[in-house]
Amino acid sequence: MARAATTSDVFNAIAEPRRRQILVLLRSGERPVTELAHELGMSQPGASKHLRVLREVGLLSERKAGKQRLYRLDARGLRPLHEWTGGFEQFWNESFDRLDAYVQDLKHARREE
Fold first, then answer.
1. 107 Cβ contact partners less than 8 Å away, ≥ 6 residues apart
2. Residue 3: its pLDDT value, please?
3. 13, 73, 74, 86: most buried by Cβ count inside 10 Å?
4. Is 29 left (phi over 0), alpha (psi -120 to 50) or beta?
């Protein structure tokens, strides 16, 4: 199976750790590329490259403010990830139910000691 192009698939786009860091930084609000590059400890062209990929898959929006480009998280782009991980909800619910039953058994055993 051929691998999807990084710029067209949100899963591939966030597979890069720096891009996930950018998303975390943008959770608190809109920021210019210079500030993001500084916080990531990378060059502005390097940060811009990651921002472009995130924008192309719909995770970011940008606007011009004077000479700066400001980037903002667009959480709607995370929908495919949310829908995919939601398919594992039953697994986690069953795991938590088993853990809860185990803890209740331990508490019951301690009371009987």
1. none
2. 53
3. 13
4. left
